[in-house]
Write a structure and sequence with these properties.
Shape: globular
Number of strands: 5
Number of helices: 12
Distance between the termini: 30 Å
Structural class: alpha/beta
Strand order of the largest sheet: 3-2-4-1-5
Helix content: 40-55%
Length: about 280
Amino acid sequence: RLSHAMKIIIITGPSATGKTRLALSLARKEKGELVNFDSRQVYKYLDIITGKDRPKNNAFKIWLYDVVDPKEYFSSFDYVRQAMKVMQDILHRKKTPILVGGTYLYLYHLLYKVETENIPPDMILRKKLNTKTVLELQCKLTEIDKSLFASLNGSDKQNPQRLIRKIELASYYKKKGTKVPLKMQYAFNDFFKDKKIEYIGLTYKNREDMLRAIKLRIDKRLKEGAIKEVKTLMDQGYGENDPGMKTIGYQQIIPYLKGKITKQQAIDLWTLKEFQYTKRQLTF
């Protein structure tokens, strides 16, 4: 049996499958510490809608909760850099890192060698691009690397943060006189080669169960104060175009608070977007 210092547990799957609950249970048995890989829970102040499950009496620390302001963009490059430091610290103390979350790009770029993830963010370029519309970003990426834009799925083509990162990569490679490699690699990062990885994927028996769980969770978060949470953030100066606020739930409640849609329309849209996202998680 390998020592705890050589073991890493990964728990993933669609939303509302009880990942954190299982992770907390394993932490007690495995002398483990939780490491979040949910791209929304890394943001400060986004608590109710993102479903941050904080252990009672702070019995267990969950690393990589609340590490960045909602106005800041936090890429998978940023995540990997921080997650590696955290895991090394946990292993050094002879504990078991328990990775838990559903953001598949964070997990993928953490586990596997992805050439583009070694390219750091260009903050000056990002500042310029943050003022652009989605259409302008699409045109900019097409202008630099048409094949890269064509390789994106429909969701990524509408996602300003991902478009900005792709422009960043395309600009970097253009200076080198090449194009962004489209083919992904599947070789493990060196860090994981001598580790025992226990991989747990949670899901539902069918879509009906998944949709039912999503509806129950949204109802629970509304009762916990989801709408008040969004209003408080807006009062503090955060808006729908801030990276952290481009989150399912917040994006549907903001139009309701602005009087553009009804509360029921916001809930229905929130439910639909959650369901669509869980299907993408399941595919991964």
